[in-house]
Amino acid sequence: VGVGPVVGEGALACGRHLFSKFEQLSVRDFVSQNIAGRLGRLDARLAADPFMTAFAAPKSPAWKSQPKHAGIVIRSWKWDSGIEKLYHNLLSAARALRRQGWTVEFISFEPADDRPVMDSLKAQGESVRAWQADAESTDGFYGYLSQFKALVTMRGHGILLGSRLGIIPIG
Are 162 and 144 in contact (CB under 8 A)? Predict the structure, then answer.
């Protein structure tokens, strides 16, 4: 699992209670391992995220042959009051890239969670490609992502997927 952010005593108490119920715990990164330790699970094992190993890396980097096509992976983030400025900056960057001949697409990995950002982008005339995990294969989604020359992302999975697909990731 990925753990965090865990903010405040209430979240720590809930996390301690929840994590105490598991016989074994694997986390995907050192940050999550440290947070699990703060939650009383010093035995949390660091293990690769199985989602990241489900496919093979491409034979050659996508950027060598891809046209000017960029993806921006969005994420709804309610824990920072200044996040709206980041969304505005991403939208401004997309428009600047388009003026330079790029095509730019916004992407949601978690449409249920990202709904506020998706709605805001749509209200400004943007479309958002939402991955429907229950209706679309991971191979199909990887194929879609592999068309990009660059992937600007607010999600750790976006950086990892971009790297694995030979796409220039920016996070």
Answer: no
